[in-house]
Design goal:
743 residues; nine-stranded mixed beta sheet; 59 strands; 0% helix; elongated
């Protein structure tokens, strides 16, 4: 088995942002900007190039602390993500990070060092609390003194974490917020004279020293989502839960609480508040900005006594007033309002530059002093040759045989469909749910008789299933389809006939429907007159359980599990052929393989069962059961023989989490096959160009990605090209034929 070296021409793809959440932005007193992502660690801003540089990388993390096998965290964390990443104000070359429940530190561009801290609960990707800010602060005059909250306690170190960390006495575990586990928050005055802890469920407490006794401030709110001191020494609390109903921003001046009355509007609460530290040189921190989930802003120049404008700065875009989400250089969000802000922060330079971290990236702006248009500019691009701030969750990359080489169609969370002509230039983007909220692209398939027609399974906030016209680059929703569930899978035959599965365990039942009139109407997918009820499972696991045979119009194959919760009996499990005629008289179904192939759709592991027809080969199907049975751990070839099918295991290939196919060698009828799985016991990304007889393994962690793989797709027009999607850091392109082969 050959192994490809790291000199392979792989490269990052697409625009940045989306998919995961940028949970925080942090700025030191010398204007060093960092940000944290909920599934893909931390990044540093390079002012000279206006780009982000990822600092959680395979070449910087200790060996064994990254990748599909999570660090040893004693079950304290569900995700290999970054709980916080900050730099020290006393010396901004010192960085601190909590990665999957463990604390790390580094100086300058050195590698990260793990402290001896016992693992602490620190989920990064669960519920509203993942957007809470104020998780860590350093002593303004001593880079080795760090105070930080966890989901169990509050901890401190006096030596930078070298000898571990210690729990702050008298601080209890945080209460759950929004129905999920939360975290205690922390703050420190600019001169280091006072430290503060917000103990969720109790309130704000202060101490003169980092490891002293913290005393509750009388009248404090009891929940908090944003916690900080401003330059004037006032302690700000943005509350959550029942205290968020109205006027949820409060600040403490050392004697009394002030709770400004915010303007009326569609929302009169905020997620986060920023206070200008110098007010353009005036020296008094009076200018405050607040922002809510809808993108609505409030601006006050006198710390809440009055607000600029008579209403929220939002609802009449583009004229005569401004809108938070107007980002002229961020094409897919320009003019939309579908942002989920997590943190606002003024740069300390006196430039009036305001930063915002939110679910799809970072923005910068200069707040106007009058009631006028307010533009925000994208600050989410990656440095060249680095994965940067890409937060996409990539579910699929579709190419169409015979299409222009290099053109592909990308399906992603929060940014459903991208039409990419060249991977290195901006793409055409479409969000079919722009009026109702963000969408997610779960999958797509092309019509064999009309390759300009791409059917899409898209859902999230409202129905978005429809089709993309590759010629006009326009998107049209299917006429009568009203599926609003999360998740999705799709198989499409000719232009008229297709199957779409939508649904999610947490949001309702599964809907499996088919059309015979190009999406003008849909009918329930049935076998033997009985409707399937549980093909999908939790929406964040992508199960490609339906596929279309491109050589025989109207023929589809469907996986049915042993635990279907609809009316179909358990003994219906196996592989089914479903034929959809142009009229009802042409419909038929046949279970061609009766042995259980999928035990359950309820498993939440991201490496799930997949079936795909081999284009150009009638009735030939590749299948993986993911990483669990009952089909075993083999990678299978099925051949439909009419009344039944034969099943053959691919030699030496097991535990395939994801696979895709692409253009085969010149003169051959079989495709290239790409897998993420084991070949002869060696796990990785493998490629076969000889009908799966031998395999070539690609180098692990290309571009130093340590994120989990979420999809693999081959290119049907470029031999040896493969697209690898990640669960929070976009995707890369690999051209296997142009690599250096090592023994």
């Amino acid at each position: 088995m050959a192994i490809l070296g790291t000199s392979a021409p792989f490269f990052d793809v697409g625009s940045s942002g989306g998919g995961g959440y940028i949970t925080s932005v942090f700025i030191t007193t010398d204007n060093k900007v960092t940000c944290t992502g909920d599934v893909w660690g931390g990044s540093d801003w390079d002012e000279a190039t206006s780009r982000w540089e990822q600092i959680v990388r395979a070449d910087l993390m200790p060996a064994g602390d990254y990748g599909p096998s999570k660090p040893s965290s004693g079950g304290k964390s569900d995700f290999p993500g970054c709980f916080f990443y900050i730099r020290a104000n006393a010396d901004s070359t010192r960085g601190y990070m909590m990665w999957n429940a463990l604390l790390y530190y580094r100086d300058g561009s050195a590698a990260w060092t793990r402290s001896s801290m016992t693992a602490k609960k620190s989920w990064t990707n669960t519920g509203a609390p993942r957007l809470f800010n104020g998780r860590a602060v350093t002593n303004p005059s001593d880079k080795t003194k760090l105070l930080f909250g966890t989901m169990e306690d509050v901890r401190y170190t006096l030596d930078g974490g070298v000898d571990g960390t210690f729990a702050v006495s008298g601080i209890g575990a945080p209460v759950d917020i929004g129905g999920v586990a939360s975290m205690n928050l922390v703050a420190v005055k600019a001169d280091g004279s006072q430290w503060a802890i917000f103990e969720q469920g109790t309130g704000a407490k202060t101490s003169a020293t980092i490891n002293g006794t913290y005393t509750l401030i009388s009248g404090s709110p009891t929940t908090c989502r944003d916690f900080f001191y401003d330059a004037a020494g006032h302690l700000h609390v943005v509350t959550y839960s029942s205290e968020q109903a109205t006027n949820n921003w409060q600040y403490w001046n050392g004697t009394t609480w002030t709770r400004p009355t915010m303007p009326s509007g569609a929302a009169n609460y905020v997620n986060t508040v920023a206070v200008d530290p110098v007010d353009g040189g005036a020296g008094v921190a009076q200018t405050c900005v607040g922002i809510a989930d809808s993108g609505q802003l409030w601006l006050t120049l006198n710390k809440g006594t009055t607000f600029v404008g008579a209403d929220t700065w939002n609802l009449t875009y583009p004229a005569p007033i401004g809108i938070y989400t107007n980002a002229p250089d961020f094409v897919w969000k320009n003019g939309a309002r579908n942002f989920n802000p997590s943190k606002l922060w003024f740069a300390p330079s006196g430039s009036n530059r305001l930063w915002c971290a939110e679910g799809v990236g970072c923005r910068r702006s200069t707040p106007p002093g009058t009631f006028s248009r307010w533009d925000w500019y994208d600050a989410s691009k990656a440095k060249s040759g680095n994965v940067g701030l890409d937060m996409w969750v990539c579910n699929q990359v579709l190419t169409i045989p015979g299409n222009t080489p290099g053109r592909n169609y990308q399906l992603k969370w929060d940014a459903p469909i991208w039409d990419v002509t060249n991977s290195k230039v901006p793409a055409t983007y479409k969000n079919p749910n722009a009026a109702t909220g963000v969408s997610a692209g779960w999958g797509a398939d092309y019509a064999s008789d009309d390759p300009t027609f791409i059917a899409c399974a898209i859902s999230m906030n409202g129905d978005g299933c429809g089709w993309w016209d590759t010629t006009t680059k326009t998107y049209t929703k299917f006429g009568t389809k009203s599926i609003t569930q999360y998740g999705g899978a799709i198989g499409w035959s000719d232009k008229n006939r297709g199957i779409i599965v939508n649904g999610a365990g947490s949001t309702g039942g599964t809907y499996a429907e088919f059309t015979r009139n190009a999406g003008a109407s849909f009918s329930p997918l049935q076998f033997g007159g009985e409707t399937l009820g549980a093909l999908l499972g939790p929406y964040y696991t992508i199960r490609k359980m339906v596929t279309a045979d491109k050589t025989t119009p109207g023929v589809f194959y469907v996986l049915v599990s042993t635990s279907n919760t609809g009316s179909v009996p358990a003994n219906f499990s196996g592989l089914w052929r479903k034929t959809i005629g142009l009229t009802g008289a042409g419909d038929s179904e046949q279970r061609i393989y009766a042995a259980p192939l999928v035990a359950s759709w309820t498993d939440t592991n991201g490496q799930q069962p997949t079936i795909r027809c081999v284009p150009g080969s009638t009735g030939k199907i590749l299948m993986t059961a993911g990483i669990y049975g009952p089909a075993g751990h083999q990678f299978y070839i099925f051949q439909d023989n009419g009344a039944s099918a034969t099943r053959t295991a691919v030699t030496n290939v097991t535990d395939v989490a994801f696979f895709g196919m692409g253009k085969g060698p010149r003169g051959q009828t079989y495709p290239s096959v790409f897998i993420f799985g084991n070949v002869s016991g060696v796990r990785g990304v493998h490629w076969s160009s000889d009908n799966m007889a031998t395999w070539t393994k690609f180098a692990d962690y290309p571009l130093n990605h340590i994120d989990n793989i979420s999809s693999i797709d081959g290119d049907w027009n470029i031999f040896g090209r493969c697209y690898i999607g990640y669960s929070g850091s976009n995707q890369i392109v690999i051209d296997f034929t142009k690599t250096v082969t090592l023994s």
